[in-house]
Amino acid sequence: MQIAVPKEIKNHEYRVALTPTGARELVARDHRVTVQAGAGEGAGFPDAAYEAAGACLETDVAKVWDGAELILKVKEPQAEEVARLKAGQTLFTYLHLAAEEKLTRGLMESGATCIAYETITDRQGGLPLLAPMSTVAGRMAIQAGAHSLEKAQGGSGVLLPGVPGVAPARVAVIGGGVVGENAARMALGLGAEVTVLDKSIPRLETLDDRYQGRMKTVFSTADTIDEAVHECDLIVGAVLIPGAAAPKLITREMLAEMQPGSVLVDVAIDQGGCFETSRATTHTDPTYIVDGIVHYCVANMPGAVARTSTQALTNATLPFVIALADKGWQQALADDAHFAAGLNVHDGQVTYKAVAEALGLQYVDPGELLK
Ligand SMILES: NC(=O)C1=CN([C@@H]2O[C@H](COP(=O)(O)OP(=O)(O)OC[C@H]3O[C@@H](n4cnc5c(N)ncnc54)[C@H](O)[C@@H]3O)[C@@H](O)[C@H]2O)C=CC1
Ligand SMILES: CC(=O)C(=O)O
Ligand SMILES: [Mg+2]
């Protein structure tokens, strides 16, 4: 199969969808891998490493896209990439379509088959291709939040661990899944006072058990979120309803209840964000202030630590990429219902229910396609 790996073009996105190690595995299976020149540089993988792995390098981006049957990316295609995509091609990447009507319609118009990393499931009920980046983003959320609390960033001037004689900062994490647990763990490590709110009792039980009372676990309701808003210096938004737009849990009105200079880090921004006042930002200009509250809402946080993230991402995606390349998308998805959950758009139709519902588009059950 002809497999293409374009260079990512989203703002400060330095990850690449395939490492040289991954390229070697595909070439060994007789697939042809074309990597756009410079695609791996930001993650520390020079062109020569891909060449040594048996991949072809291409400087002309049009040729990279044009000749491909399978396109591997990291971030959702940007407008100029959507324009390059065509019927008969398979795109495998993060898509996060529920909050992106224009992108969804663009992918439908392309006629391509679009499989999203973030909706693929596993036997344990997890999201195995989201989890590695959620781990990274969760850990980064506290670094970003701590920096945003500094006065020069518009923050309140609170140091997360405090110092002897001065109390530590209070951190709330809404959503105690992969992002949430990793954020909470980092905040604990820095000596903050940490509360995790979740709607899932089993999840709260797991956290309680794992952290042995070192963090508070609280059932998430309008009341308990209100309490967190009153008390906390830093709130991390880490909720997810798979494939769907994130629920808005903190309204603009509620910002007035926070201490001025407090910080909201909305990791769930790639699903539309879980705070009413969130809007996606970039690594170039990651924060903005609404009613005295600093907002950090970068939709591709792991892109900033591209070396770690690329390795973690491709460790997880490679078995799926090999299945797509060896069998073609139809057979690969027919053989694995968890993989099939990744199919979001095919041949002009939305094949993922939560996306169709969020955008008011017609849902087409992919079952028939996979028989
Ligand atoms: N901005 C970025 O760069 C990145 C963003 N993400 C995003 O972070 C979000 C979280 O991802 P994961 O932790 O992997 O998901 P997850 O599925 O592991 O965890 C989500 C948690 O939210 C909980 N939840 C749902 N509704 C809730 C509510 N109303 N109140 C409290 N908790 C609620 C669920 O019970 C679950 O435990 C997703 O939107 C994901 O796409 C992930 C990686 C990078
Ligand atoms: C999950 C995601 O969108 C990212 O890693 O950029
Ligand atoms: Mg996005």
Q: Could you explain the architecture of this structure?
A:
The chain has 371 residues and is α/β, with parallel strands linked by helices. It has 2 domains: 2-120 and 306-370, Rossmann fold; 131-299, Rossmann fold. 35% of the residues lie in helices and 16% in strands. It has 14 helices and 15 strands. It has helices at 20-28, 47-52, 61-66, 79-82, 101-110, 131-148, 178-189, 201-211, 222-231, 252-255, 306-327, 329-334, 337-340, 353-359, and strands spanning 2-5, 32-36, 56-58, 70-72, 90-93, 113-116, 170-174, 193-198, 216-219, 234-237, 263-266, 287-290, 293-296, 343-346, 349-350. The strands form 2 sheets. Strands 3-2-1-4-5-6-14-15 form an 8-stranded mixed beta sheet, sandwiched between helices. Strands 9-8-7-10-11-13-12 form a 7-stranded mixed beta sheet, sandwiched between helices. Strand 5, helix 5 and strand 6 (113-116) form a beta-alpha-beta unit. Helix 6 packs across helix 7. The longest helix has 22 residues, at 306-327. 52% of the residues are buried. Bound molecules: 1,4-dihydronicotinamide adenine dinucleotide, pyruvic acid and magnesium ion.
